[in-house]
Amino acid sequence: MDQKQIKILEEELWSIAEKFRVDSQLKVSEYYLPVLGLIMLRYAQNVFEEAKIQIEKRISSNPRNHGRLISLTKDDFTGQGSIFLNQESKYDYLANIPESKDINEAVNHAMQLIENDYPDMEGILPKNYQELESDLLRGLIRTLNSEKIKALPGDVFGRIYEFFLMKFAQQGAGGNDDGEFFTPPSLVNLIVNFIEPNHGIIHDPACGSGGMFVQTGHFMRSHSDEQINEKVIIKGTEKIESNAKLAKMNLRIHGIENTIISGKDGNSFYSDPHNLVGKCDFVMANPPFNVKKVDKKRDFVVNDPRLPFGLPKADNANYLWIQYFYSYLNKKGRAGFVMASSATDAGNTEKHIRQKLIETGDIEAIVSIGNNFFYTRSLPCHLWFFNKDKKDKDTILMIDARNTFRKVTLTINDFSPDQLEGLTTIIKSYRGETVDFKANEWLTTNFGSGNYEDVEGLCKVASMDEIIENDYSLTPGRYVGFSIKIDEDFDYKGKMTEIHDELAKLNAESDDLMKSIQDMKL
Question: Which residues lie across from 103 on neighbouring strands?
């Protein structure tokens, strides 16, 4: 199945889910977890059937079995990267269950059986199907059991799960004041492309639905034949339990082993449950912005070793997060994270912390991101990148990507593949790697010489002297300057004529109104 066919199938499945929502009159917050649970279950059986064929083939080819049928065990499937399914946990069983049986209870029971076999999934799978209307649930299950869907390989289901997460995020599912459960793919891709996580301990202390970890898997598969579980150790924390459930289902679908701690112990302000200071090879995160009311008088916060540059006085947690990410890194570690735009110029104690960070020489790059990349908020943001193994400690790469985007809808932007490749090429060049500045149209448009050069309005390698001169600001726009971009397809003259005509009309109406007032007899 090619990319175009997958895209068509994603939209078909989403329309099915949307019809279910409309018919059931449920809010998105009430139905997104049950729907994702069914996708997880359908995926589990597809992978189970794929694994079963391979296991039986291996057993039959073993001369010691003498052609005998051997009972397959949970261990057989684990070795094949699959979940073992009891008969009553199989999607086909649920799709064909008699009308006389309670379908809601049957789905809850199927989820419970899987959790019984896999303690690491305990409490993760949705088991609130009794809240859904039975006939609608039965219809949804059967719709997701078409021959086309049953034939899908596991990796395609991973794509579909990610697509559904994105669509639910666009509808505001799981929305709260603590941030997003889903980071837009363009930002995740850019972070992963920049820091290249491919070994060791990878940590996300605000992991949401696990998108950073999943993209790490995609990155590794596209760059190596080695299995992700053989090369990396995934550790995440997430305060919100429902987000952690999404992450664990997401990672299970993608075959990525993980340790995610959630709930009270997943609150990164008051705990460091993985004890990872100085141990991480890579840190990635999209933490909630501008969090207030962190209790800075708690003993844990006052004595937190993750705050080497001090405790900021402002009622804002941005510089707590920034220090956590820095402190987790080992001597060669890299970090990439999303941060509120205000952090690059924040003053007082936050400026003092930023200055100390700059003086380490470990800040590698800052990238400005424009509006409308997030689905439930339109504010701009910055991506920060640390690299403790950075060769040039006296400069920082500044990229202003606010004018680099592709319009998806009226309210959503992202990066095109060429733009992603182009921005990644810039940082690779900064590191001294061999790159091709003629690899695509975006690069040739911005770098006509075929080599890296500071481009007004886009990028600049800022020296330490320049940064000191700018009062330790890390806002790229201060360094790269600006360029005026003219939209050749826009009728500026026609628009000005339209504005003048509208103004003349308003002036005439104003004159008429004034005359009426003056003629009025009191």
Answer: none
Q: What topology is assigned to 185-480 in CATH?
A: Rossmann fold (3.40.50)
Give the model confidence (pLDDT) of 47-59 as tens digits. Answer: 888 888 888 888 7
CB atoms within 10 A of CB 94: 25
pLDDT in tens, 251-275: 887 888 899 999 889 999 999 999 9
Strand partners, 383: 338, 367
Q: Model-level pTM greater than 0.90?
A: no
Q: Are 335 and 385 in contact (CB under 8 A)?
A: yes
Q: Averaged over 397-425, what is the pLDDT? A: 94
Choice among 152-161, 212-221, 327-336, 418-427 with the minimum mean pLDDT: 152-161
Edge-to-edge strand list for the sheet holding 232-238: 259-262, 232-238, 200-204, 280-285, 329-340, 381-387, 363-369, 395-401, 459-463
Question: Is beta strand 259-262 parallel, antiparallel or unpaired with respect to 280-285?
Answer: unpaired
Q: Which of 88, 104, 102, 97 is nearest to 44 (CA)?
A: 88
The residue assigned the tokens 């890194």 is 329
| Residue 477: pLDDT band with limits 50, 70, 90 | very high
Token digits of residue 270: 């008051």
Fold of 3-170: Ferritin (1.20.1260)
Cβ-Cβ contacts under 8 Å for 452 (sequence gap 6 or more):
426, 429, 430, 437
Tell me the CA distances in angstroms from 192 to 67, 212, 337, 403, one per residue in order: 48, 8, 10, 21
Domain map (residue ranges) of the chain: 3-170, 185-480
- 115, 125 contact by CB (below 8 A): yes
Bridge-based pairing state of the strands 363-369 and 395-401: parallel
Nearest to 393 by CA among 362, 365, 367: 362
Work out the end-to-end distance of the chain between its first and last CA atoms, rounded to an integer number of angstroms: 80
CB atoms within 10 A of CB 47: 24
Q: Which pair of tokens denotes residue 131?
A: 């809240």
The reply to whether 3-170 and 185-480 are identical in fold is no
